[in-house]
Amino acid sequence: RRPGAPAPHFPLNPPPGGRHTGAMAGWQALSLKQPWAALVSAGAKTVEVRTWGTRRRGPLLIHASRVPDERPEAWAWVTTPALRALAAFRGGVLGTAELVDCVHYPD
User: Fold this and answer.
1) Strand pairing partners for 58?
2) What is the CA radius of gyration of the chain?
3) Each residue's pLDDT tens digit, 78-105
4) Rounded to an integer, what distance in angstroms lies between the CA atom of residue 90 and that of residue 66?
């Protein structure tokens, strides 16, 4: 995908029988509220903080949840028309990202 181009959209609704086949079979997804999903997909956000760790590394589908993050500080990062278009999408996969590391932050 060329920089700034909208990412493809692949809904995560399970097909009949409940199992994905084809291009998404075997993939794992990280679900994020918008605009964070758009920012990760576009490469503008490179760190995600979670309370849990994982041994998983490699490509992940980036899923935009149906409920956005309403905080103004989140949307302040959406600075281009391409990011605005990507951040408008809800309830499906809008791109991929590479999980390269998982760092534990002590409490």
Assistant:
1) 99
2) 14
3) 999 999 999 999 999 999 998 888 887 7
4) 5
